[in-house]
Design brief:
binds magnesium ion, binds 3-methylbut-3-enyl trihydrogen diphosphate, six-stranded parallel β-sheet
Length: 238
């Protein structure tokens, strides 16, 4: 049973980790783990739809993941393209709007093309907003945000005395979305790995030892259930 509406986070962010280990325990190549991970994405999107979550941000490829062997990077890019191509009709049908954050121009041309195609084809949907973080790095995003602010100051659009938390947020890739309420990381690692450094300031964290390809709707509901028990204080007193 999905948790009750009042405890549901508006925005869930997920560090989908453990695909490689999942494959390794089965004696399979790492890419098989990524393929299984893509299935878990489908299930998770569906679960968020059931729960009426408004935003789901998935860490799909980090700025640091380019350091992996070329063959793995290539396979991941192809998987992304195929996933988008194949799932676009389903996203449309389920009223999901696709968005992306990160240095998207670093992606291969064909991946960029498919990504923009899916973004366009789902632009009119008003259900779940699914945000893929691709070639995404939190520190790079902050640097890009600073550059964007400096440009606005140079052009005279803003005065530097006006810069505050809210304004800076409007110069980040995530400017159109609220900060995540719940961060889930699979595979048990207790780190952020350069994900949404600015936006996660007051996000509730949930780490599960389950590897990403094994993460089911039930696991998602368990995370949301636990989120409902948390007391968010934002540094204040009750
Ligand atoms: C997460 O799984 C997927 C990506 C980073 C693209 P990993 O590939 O990091 O899997 P592990 O951490 O090696 O098990
Ligand atoms: C974080 O996982 C990036 C994604 C899930 C896309 P990594 O596997 O790259 O992170 P580290 O290396 O364990 O910190
Ligand atoms: Mg990993």
């Amino acid at each position: 049973m999905p948790p009750t509406a009042k405890t549901v986070p508006r925005h869930i962010a997920i560090i989908m980790d453990g695909n490689g280990r999942w494959a390794k325990t089965r004696g399979l190549p790492r890419i098989k783990g990524h393929e299984a991970g893509a299935q878990a994405v489908r299930e998770c999107v569906e679960g968020c739809g059931d729960l009426k979550v408004q935003y789901l941000t998935l860490y799909a490829f980090s700025a640091e993941n380019w350091q992996r062997p070329k063959s793995e990077v290539f396979a991941l890019m192809r998987l992304l393209e195929n996933f988008l191509k194949e799932k676009t009709p389903e996203l449309v049908e389920k009223n999901v709007r696709l968005q992306a954050i990160g240095r998207l121009t670093d992606l291969p041309q064909s991946s960029q093309k498919q990504l923009h195609k899916t973004i366009e084809q789902t632009a009119g949907n008003n259900g779940l907003t699914l945000i893929l973080a691709l070639s995404y790095g939190g520190r790079l995003e902050i640097i890009d945000g600073i550059k964007s602010l400096l440009r606005a100051v140079e052009l005279g659009h803003i005065d530097k005395g006006m810069i505050d938390v809210e304004m800076f947020s409007k110069h980040l890739y995530t400017r159109y979305y609220p900060d995540p309420d719940l961060l889930i990381r699979t595979s048990g690692e207790m780190r952020l790995s350069n994900f949404l450094l600015w936006q996660l300031s007051y996000t509730e964290m949930y780490v599960t030892p389950k590897l990403w390809p094994d993460f089911t709707k039930k696991d998602l509901f368990a995370a949301v259930e636990e989120f409902g028990q948390r007391q968010r204080r934002y540094g204040a007193v009750e």
